[in-house]
Amino acid sequence: MNFLPAPAARHLVSSAPSRPHPSPDWRRLWVSLVTVLAVVLGGLTAPAAFASSANGATFSGGAGTVTVGGALFATSGAGVTLTVSTSNDTKCVDVTGAFTAHQMSTIGKTTWTFTTTASTGDGARAVTATASPSENSQGKCTGSSSSAQASYTVDNTGPVLQSTLTPAANAAGWNKTDTVVAWTATDAGSGVGTGPTPASSTVNANGTTNITSTARDRLNNLASASVTVRIDKGSPTITATQVTNPAGTTTVTFTCSDPTSGIASCLAQGSTTNAVTVQPGSTVIGTATDAAGNSSTKTVSVAAGDTSAPTLSGTPTTPANASGWYANDVTVRWTAADPESGIPTAPVDTTISGEGTGLTSSTSVLNGAGLSTTATSPAVKIDRTAPTTGISGSSNTWTNNAVTVSLSAADNLSGVARTEYTIDGGPTQTGTGFTLSSEGDHTVTFRSIDAAGNAEAVRTAQVRIDRTAPTIGHVFTPLSYADGTWTNANVTVTFSCADQGGSGVAGCTAPSTITTEGTSAVVGTATDGAGNSATDSASVRVDKTVPTISAVASGVQNDSGWYRDDVTMSYTANDELSGVAGTPANVVLSEGSEQSAFATVTDAAGNSNSAGVTGINIDKTPPVLTAEYSAAAWNTDDVTVTWTCTDALSGPAGQPNNTSVTGEGINLSSTASCSDVAGNVTTKTVTGIKIDRSAPATVADVPDPLASGWYGDAVLVTLTGSDNLSDVVATSYTVDGGAVQAYTEAFSLDSTGEHTVLFWSTDGAGNVEKAGAPLTLKVDTIAPTTTVVNPISPASGWFVTSGIPVAFEASDTGSGISATHYTIDGGETQTYGAPFTANLSTGTHTITYWSVDLADNTEEHATTNTVNVNVDTDAPTIVGAASPKANAAGWNNTDVDVTFSCNDLASGLQTGVAGCAGDTTLTNDGAGQTVVGDAVDVAGNTRTTTFGPVNIDTVKPTLMGVPADGNAAGWHTDDVLVKWIGDDALSGIDPTTQPGDSYVTGEGADLGAGPVTIADKAGNLSDPASVTGVKIDRTAPHIDGSPTTSANAAGWYSSDVTVDYTCTDALSGIAKCPTSKLITGNGADQKVTGDPATDVAGNQAAGVTVSGINIDGSAPSTVSNNTCTAVNDYCKGDFANVVLTATDQAGLSGVKEIRYSVDGGTEQVTAGATATVRVPLTGSGSGSVQYYAVDKAGNVEASNGVSLKWDNIAPTVTHTVSPTPNADGWNKGDVTVTFTAKDDDRGSGVTGISAPVTVSTETAGRVVTGSATDTAGNVGTDSVTVKLDRTAPTITGTITAGTRTASGWYTGPVTVTFTCTDALSGIVTCPDPVVLSANGANAASGTATDKAGNSTTASVPGINIDQEKPTLTTANVNVQDGTFTVGSVPAPTCTATDSFSGVASCRVTVTGGNANGVGTFTYTATATDKAGNSTTITGTFRVVYRFDGFLQPINDTAHQIGVATSVFKAGSTVPVKFQLRDAAGNLVQAASAPIWLTPVKGVAMNVPVDETVYTAVSDSGSVFKYDATSKQYIYNWKTGSASGNYWRIGVILDDGQTHFVNIGLR
Questions:
Q1: In a shared domain, residues 861 and 880
Q2: Is the domain of 867 the same as that of 890?
Q3: The pLDDT value given to residue 795
Q4: 484 phi, psi to nearest 5 deg
Q5: CA separation (Å) from 375 to 318, 346, 348, 1149?
Q6: Are residue 294 and residue 242 in the same domain, yes or no?
Q7: Residue where a domain terminates, one of 340, 364, 382
Q8: Helix, strand, or coil here: 13?
Q9: Which of 19, 312, 890, 1450 is the least buried, fewest Cβ under 10 Å from its Cβ?
Q10: Nearest Cα residue to 1474 out of 1415, 1544, 1555, 1410
């Protein structure tokens, strides 16, 4: 709607071309002004619009609420009331926010109340109340509305309590005085109502106390808080302990405790811990502080030093044996004690080693004051060496008499306690002799034990007794020869002898070789070590003479000595001694030259002889005839064929003559024949000979030229050659007399001009065609050219008149010009003849021109040969356009750019227009807006236009959907109609976009329509509108009815049937479902119908009928009939039949099957009402058939039964073999086979059985058979094979590897190999070679066992091995790590042990030390055993001076008793003196001067001077001087002036010892 006068509006928009667009601020001001005017002017004509107002909203409450400062507070569950004050036209109020509510009234009112219940939690609960003047048909508030807000606060939390302690606790949370607890309370909600209670408390008790206070807010919410108060008013306790250290100092340790707050620190004076180390006589203070800050102290005094030496005693850790002896090292456990300064380092155990009586060990110990004690242990007796035992009477040789064995033992220390021995691994016996008389290889082991318990290593000896004769057998060489058979070679008979008694074979007949022909007997004899003998004989037959043989050939030779057929060779043979083994078969010879046939005949002794015929020539193959002729595929003249006859065996008899082939053709031939020397003939024909004597012919093919005789394009030349026989193989040509070219395919001539082409062909035989008349061709492929003479454009490029002169010129370099053509403005083509004038109208014109030559080549012209002619006599045009364009309704919904386009019909749009103005952008909503534009062309013509009206609406319309109402549950059973309502205030709704009514189809619980939109006439599209939550259920519920139980597989029930119904509805759900129905009584195909069902949407389904119910509750019955052939109540034969017949009640389910089992076995099932049970009469016994029937309803008959018995089985015979054979099936003693028989438990019984059989003769396998007969005459048998071998195998052992030294000891592993044999059952086990590597006395034993279990054991004793070095440790050297006083050093000795061959020697050498016999010495000890093995070790020991302490004037408290530390005058000279002695007390002199140690300042002291002041000249060196007169060492120490301390002075001696003494300076 326009609300300003039209001229003003036109002036506003038309000013755009001459000045800039308004600024955005100006536009906003303008829009605001327009809006105000629109409201004012619109109010003059439109009806009044009323709006309800919400003037205020407040909350109030009752119980459980309180108002503080005008704000309402409420606890959870309290009722609150919202009161809304509105204008008097309000008929509808909606409440949203903390709770929602809706009220409406048919008349306007000003006060509205709503009630709700306060929620849980804490915090503000706000609502918005919206007042509206009306309500729509859907019960919703509508019309112009306004709103008001209100809130209340939910407060369910009590106040917050805070405590304050006076005084405040320390960092550890403790107080050490009475403490006051004060409480404060705050509440962020309704505020504090009462409390805190109590407001304050005083705590005065020691320990931990919890104080609690409470408070309530104005809504009576209760809160409580607690605080822990910790008070400790008591001081901690502190105690002290003292421990004396090895250096003479004392460690004082304080222990602190506090029962209440606990210890925070426990410190010793001068230390960061609870312990401190001080000198004797010191005072130490300890301080304890608890966590509350209370403290206590403890003062400790440390006593003076210790002057008494400790006590020391030693005792062996293990007792000696009953004889008072030890067999190994003795460990001495030392016990030391000192009641004053204690033992800093307990003495370690010492070891008494070596052998002998009266052995002891010594050690020393220091107390805490440095005083020492040395003690010696009680004497002990040690014997480490086992006794040795000798043996007499044993031997490795065999004897046939009893053997007496004597044992003699000796021991070097404790004496022999006993001697033990065993015989053949039997029990251990004690004694020194015994006698053996039983036959065999006996092994004797023995050893002795001394009184110290040392046991000698077990030794082994052998005793051999044999009284059994040997055995003898023979073998032949070659091994393939069998006793008494014929051979053609010498035969050697070798006898093998064995001895079963163990003494071995003493003599065995040497091998005998038979070389003479005929039959010979050879006898051998075996003798064992005891003189027993046995004999064996063998038979040998020798034939060395070959048999005789002759050969004869059959067949006919020709005169040339050739056969033309196979030749047969036959043979005759004979032998006079061993006889011919067989006559050779005939041999057939086939083709070949110089053939021979030989056959060999062999006699029984293996001698062979051959005979045959040589020089047999057989040729059955015809000769080969070959032809040679020209190898060319084609020939142009006669062809000569050369024939050659060859034969691989007899050769050709002659050669055929050559032949000649004439004429022409593709398959000419020639024939010849030849024969070989044997008379075979061959004929051959060669074909495929080709002869071509004629040249080919060639023709050319080209397209027809134009009528002018010219070609205007390339000319394709095609050449075709032909030949009547060998075919064309090549075609050639030349162009314009040029080079000859091979023709392969059609070629083109495209160069402009006149051309001459010559051509010809060659055939496969080489014939060449003569070229014919040439081919002439004229070609022009270049188009002519045309130039423009007129028109010539004026300088301005425009013609101002319509008569335009036109003229052209054309030229061609080839065939010449045929014509020139032109068109004007794409019109009809015209032929140019002479210059002419064209009358052209205003505008731009195009003249196109071109020429064509006689070869029909046309000049290109479409884009190249054009002339533009411009003619202008008209004014320009101007057209306005809106962008975007208005829609079909004439509206835009965005800013509109109005632009003007100017045109000049003559001079063109871009070059002919001089000016085009007036473009403007319209941005305001409104209708009927216009814009003015102007245009000027080059000639000065002008034109003005007004563009409009332009209508703009940028506000999108609104749209809502209203669905039809459903049933009470909100459901529909059919399509739901949805109506769409749209609204737009400016351009109005575009009726074409009005959505049609929607129908919500389908089914579902949340269906909807949309989204849909609507547009106004300006094309503004509304937001998509949708309707959701539509519920449609069109489908009636589904009823399923079925029995609650399933019929069986035959479809029958055996009892009453309950039919149950289930209802389902996929959407609205079931409102009503029918109840169950019951069917009773027997009968087939019964049925029942249920009630209908209804869903929530109101759809109803008819009741369902369930039919086909078959009920049969009665069981069937069965009878049986047994049939079999019986004798004496027993069935006989292969089987018996039991016939079963079952029936069921008429009209019911009928018999389904009969079930039966035989003898309680697996139940069988037969379908139908009859069954024949076939009972196999297997064996003998009795059986039964159990049976019953089942009908199709599953009713089961009670079980019935029938029984029968039979006997078809013979007795079962079994055997026992006594004794039972071993796993290999062999026995080694008499074997008794006993047979037992048993008839089947239900059979006729056994009447007779075979007697036992005893096998006592050795056998490799004897079959023993037994039988038994029952009453029915059935016979049973059983067999067993008995294998008996009574003879034990033989075994011998031999040392096959190992080196024995002269001492009789082996120094490495020894290998013993065993050989085993057995003549009957064979060897099952024979020992592997035994490798003995254990040190000491060894014996290798092996047992051979045959398959019958007989075994023999052989032993190789007396194998002594020592591979180890003797044992020697530093503990075995008497001076190891010892410290000795010079003059009392023992001679270094060593003791070693060797567990096997024994120690031969143990020697010690010593090096090192000083010349005077003191210092550190190194020893080397070497032990060697009797086998030569040796062990070497090294160690050290020390030799020192006897030092009795420093001499006066110094009191040496370390070496003297009852003296105090000397105190000298500070600054005086102190003479430091001492003497060195040997063990006997003799004074000795050091090898090198003793070294003076730099004095070390000690702890402070205040003891007065108690020694004389000396003024002797002081020494400045670093060594003591030796006073030869006094035989003492002296150093005069010049002390410093500093006083009040102890000092430590000392000396380093050349024996490695350092001695100290303490003095004081004052």
A1: no
A2: no
A3: 60
A4: 80, 5
A5: 19, 14, 13, 117
A6: yes
A7: 382
A8: helix
A9: 19
A10: 1555
Q: Examine the domain organization and report whether 181 and 255 are in the same domain.
A: no
Q: Which string of b and e fits 728-741 if b means at least 16 CB within 10 Å?
A: beebbbbbeeeeee
Is-contact 898 947, C-beta < 8 A?
yes
In a domain, residue 1054? The reply is yes
Task: Residue 824: give its domain's CATH number.
Answer: 2.60.40.10
Q: Are residues 168 and 193 in the same domain?
A: yes
Task: Tell me 649's DSSP state.
Answer: S
Rg (CA), the chain: 73
pLDDT in tens, 566-589: 888 888 888 888 888 788 888 888
Q: What are φ and ψ of residue 81, in 5° steps?
A: -125, 130
CATH of the domain at 1231: 2.60.40
Is residue 1517 within 8 Å of residue 1492, measured between CB atoms?
A: yes
Distances (CA, A) of 539 to 80, 175, 231, 536: 142, 130, 129, 11
Find the domain containing 329 and state its range.
Answer: 310-382
Q: Six-digit token pair at 368?
A: 């805490």
> Are 1336 and 457 a contacting pair, CB within 8 Å?
yes
Going by C-alpha positions, the residue among 804, 829, 805 that lies closest to residue 819 is 829
Q: Give residue 402's pLDDT.
A: 84
Distance from C-alpha of 149 to C-alpha of 983, rounded to nearest angstrom: 30
Structural domain contains residue 409: no
Can you tell me whether residue 1320 is helix, strand or coil? Answer: coil
Listing DSSP states for 547-597 in one string gives PEEEEEE-S---TTS-BSS-EEEEEEEE-SSS-BS-PPPPEEE-SEEEEEE
Give the DSSP per-residue string, 968-985. Answer: TTSEESS-EEEEEEEE-S
Measured between alpha carbons, how far is 609 from 587 in angstroms, rounded to an integer?
A: 17
CA distance to 888, 894, 986, 1214, per residue, from 955 (Å): 18, 10, 8, 119
- Both structure tokens of 1: 């709607």
Q: Do residue 58 and residue 118 come from a single domain?
A: yes
pLDDT at 803: 78
Query: In this predicted structure, what is the pLDDT of residue 22?
Result: 41
Domain annotation covers residue 453 = no
3-class SS string, 39-87: HHHHHHHCCCCCECCEEEEEEEECCCEEEECCEEEECCCCEEEEEEEEC
* Cβ(1371)–Cβ(1390) below 8 Å: no
- Given this model, what pLDDT does residue 13 score? 31
What residue ranges of the chain have pLDDT lower than 70? Answer: 1-50, 246-247, 305, 394-396, 530, 794-800, 873, 905-912, 914, 937-941, 1126-1130, 1272, 1302
Sign (positive or negative) of CA dihedral 1505, 1508, 1514, 1520: negative
Using CA atoms in the order 1126, 1130, 1134, 1140, what is the torsion angle rounded to 10 degrees?
A: 70
Which pLDDT tens digit goes with each residue over 530-548?
677 888 889 888 888 888 8
Give percent above pLDDT 70 in the chain.
94
Write down the pLDDT at residue 1130.
66
Count the neighbouring beta carbons within 10 Å of the beta carbon of residue 345.
Answer: 9
Task: Please answer whether residues 1003 and 991 qualify as being in contact, where contact means their C-beta atoms are separated by less than 8 angstroms.
Answer: no
What does the alpha-carbon distance between residue 489 and residue 496 come to, in Å, rounded to a whole number?
Answer: 22
- Quote the pLDDT of residue 574: 87
**Bridge partners, 1218 (sequence order):** 1232
- The neighbour count for residue 1398, using CB atoms within 10 Å, is 15
Task: Report how many domains make up the chain.
Answer: 15
Structure tokens that stand for 266 in this block: 């426990």
Tell me the CA distances in angstroms from 1040 to 1047, 1063, 1067, 1068, 1090, one per residue in order: 17, 6, 17, 18, 10
> Contact at 8 Å (CB) between 968 and 953?
no
Residues recorded for the chain: 1562
Q: Is residue 190 part of a domain?
A: yes
Give CA angle at 461 (460, 466), nearest 5°. Answer: 140
Residue type, 655: Q
Indicate if 855 and 901 belong to the same structural domain: no
Q: Pick from 362, 382, 402: which residue ends a domain? A: 382
